[in-house]
Amino acid sequence: MKVYDEGLDAMQQIKEATALAQKSGRYVLCQVGGNWCPWCLRFADFAKKDSVIAPLIEENFVYIHVNYSKGNKNLKAMRFIGNPGRFGYPVFVVLDSEGKPIHTQESESLEEGKGYSRQKVEKFLRLWNRKAVEAEAALLEEAYQKQSKEQLYEFFDHWSEDISSNESEAPNRWIAEAHKIFKAFYQPLQLEKIGCGGNEFGVSYQEYPYFIVQSKLSRIYKADTLPFKPDEMEAYYTDRINQTYPDDSTRKSWINYLKRELEIGRMSLSFGESWLETWEKIPTEVMDMKIDFHPSVSFPGKKVVYLTDNYKKLLDKFLGDQHVDLGTESIMQTAYAKEESRQRMDFLQQAAQIFYGHWGGYWQYETYPQAYNIIIDANMQRAIVYFRFIYEGGEVYMEKQNGEWTVLSGRLTWIE
Asked: Which residues does residue 116 pair with via DSSP β-bridges, in sequence order?
């Protein structure tokens, strides 16, 4: 049985499906895979024949089979839908009526025995169809119009139930380890552990019942080594200088510079900064990027929601963008929300703390800190987490002790 047309241009296929979805009030369901993939063919047959799933798809989605094969990898389309192949095949990508990816669903959690679970597939389809997604937006708007905290909490509860952790679905060991690192790093109730205690924003998350956790990680890097201690730095960088500079006078000059920097405590680990000398840069390799990342975190008395693209889009639309521009009142004044947007922000903050963007024109929803890059050493014993904290950012040094990741130290290093 052949389901996928290997000759199709997938971008054109997605464009046509999106146009049909707009006309019919549906979303697009892309099943990515190929005729070479037994599970891809198995799902296609299941979706066609199952008495519950077949009409559910027909009613709510424009269902297309997006080909990925040796003969036609459709790389442009793969990039457009977020390179979902890292989750294996088949993989399902839901596009909204504008053609924007709003959810990626791996196959394994829908499987049962040698086939697919009707119950699991039905839950996935009911959560991610247009009616369900727009119903949540309507619930939030109704909560605001009625100034109902009860309905606001109902919206957040639905959100919490809709999106769960994907830690168990990590497609490689580097992402799996990043989940473990994040869980030890992410302590919004103990910000002092990462150098953000007594922050200038006066932020304390104790009073908020919901935490909005990031759902993406920019990059994971591998470094051959991460020499945290001064004596380790001296040994590592001395060796780098000796390898880089055969000329005796140049080598001695850099060795003396290194010793001075270590003595005054100014030497730190550096990686890709272009202005640095070659010996100062610790070589790294990108292991993964643009990662769908829903770490399994929990806190007593709090509920966790993950900031997926779809929920971000929903909140952006709800809040609007009425604001005072950066620098309007003084040179140090950040942009801030005003009028109706400010009122909606205050209403939302009965559930979770959010911020208006420093530069203006965007919202910051995450419950901080937010990790964006993680560097892990080759032995997976040490790591550096680069993070944002509202309008600032920094780095956290971590080490595995007795098999568990532990924060050694953290500091803020930049501010907008």
From this structure: 111
- Residue 355 CA to residue 199 CA, distance in Å, equals 15
Q: What are phi and psi of 308, to 5 degrees?
A: -75, 165
- For residue 6, how many other CB atoms are within 10 A of its CB? 15
* Phi and psi at residue 286, to the nearest 5°: -75, 120
Place of tokens 């919004």: 188
Strands 323-324 and 303-307: unpaired
Average pLDDT per run of 10 along the chain, which is 416 residues long?
Answer: 94 97 96 97 97 97 97 95 91 93 90 95 93 94 98 97 88 95 96 85 90 96 93 92 87 91 85 80 92 93 93 94 96 95 98 97 97 97 97 96 96 92
**How far is residue 398 from each of residues 23, 178, 322, 363, 385, measured CA to CA in Å?**
52, 12, 40, 30, 8
Find out whether 395 and 402 touch, Cβ atoms under 8 Å: no
Identify the three-state secondary structure at position 304: strand
Q: Which residues contact 386 (CB under 8 A, 6 or more apart)?
A: 371, 372, 373, 374, 375, 393, 394, 395
Cα dihedral value 285, 370, 304, 80, nearest 10: -60
Is 338 strand, coil or helix?
coil
Q: How far is CA 356 from CA 56, 287, 412, in A?
A: 39, 32, 20
- Strand spans (E) along 132-268: 210-214, 216-223
Rounded to 5 degrees, what are φ and ψ at 360?
95, 150
Q: How many other C-beta atoms are found inside a 10 Å radius of the C-beta of residue 286?
A: 11
Instruction: Give the helix/strand (H/E) hosting 394.
Output: strand 392-401
The phi, psi pair for 166, rounded to 5°, reads -115, 20
**Residues facing 31 on adjacent strands:** 65, 92
Q: What is the pTM of this model?
A: 0.82
Question: Is 10-128 a domain of CATH 3.40.50.300?
Answer: no
